[in-house]
Amino acid sequence: MTFTAPDSLAEQIAHHLAERIVRGELKARERIQEIKVTQALNVSRGPVREALLILERRHLVRILPRRGAQVAELTAHKVTSLYALMASLYVMLGRAVALNWKDERELDPFLHIRRRLVENRERDDIGSFAEVSFGILREAFPFADNPYLQETLENLIPVISRTYYLALERRRGEMSQTLAALDTLLQAIVEHDADRVERVVLAYVKHNRDLVLAALIER
After folding, report:
1. Which of 14, 26, 157, 171 could link 51 by a cystine bridge, Cβ 3.0 to 4.6 Å?
2. Domain boundaries along the sequence of the chain
3. In this predicted model, what pLDDT tens digit does every residue of 49-106 receive, in sequence order?
4. CATH number of the domain at 76-218, out of 1.10.510.10, 1.20.120.530, 1.10.10.10, 3.30.300.30?
5. By C-alpha distance, which of 134, 41, 165 is closest to 51?
6. What is the pLDDT of residue 67?
7. Which pairing describes strands 61-64 and 31-32: parallel, antiparallel, or unpaired?
8. pTM of model > 0.85
9. How many Å apart are CA 117 and CA 126, to the nearest integer?
10. Helix 34-41 and helix 45-57: axis angle, to 10°?
11. Cα–chain center distance at 51
């Protein structure tokens, strides 16, 4: 495998490993051995170490003294804690979009993402569906104009994606539910109804949290 710009080599390795964790190819508590990664990807150990540190910051990997890196475990407590934080951050972001958009053309990127999500659902591609859905957050960041909010969510996206994938893998019909929630959210945004946006977001986050917790029990 060959990695190229624009991302740093460590970021590209981190992205590669993150995809394997999100999709369940690397299991919870499974060791990630630096030497095996370097050999598999034909890279040196320095960028691999840096990649593992990136993944630790993104809550996908734990690095233990004298034991090295292992895939972080998803527990009910972690999921509940994550979704409590997500609820606050998503509400902040959603309200910012509803209150700050001025020209309807500013909302076109959200409609484009919706079309891509429909295509992913029709192909039953849960991996791409989960990945594309985070484009909604990234398109919303400029409306909030808050670099700390953006940085926090960017670091959380990988672990959130892991939970989404877990839930969608077991209940593929949830892709349609997500699209329905998105339609309701976009309508509230068009109407500049920030309070309704907040209600929709909180209901969506709670629904997904419950799905993930149920999926954990079923594993």
Report:
1. 14
2. 9-71, 76-218
3. 999 999 999 999 999 888 889 999 999 999 999 999 999 999 999 999 999 999 999 9
4. 1.20.120.530
5. 41
6. 83
7. unpaired
8. yes
9. 10
10. 120
11. 18
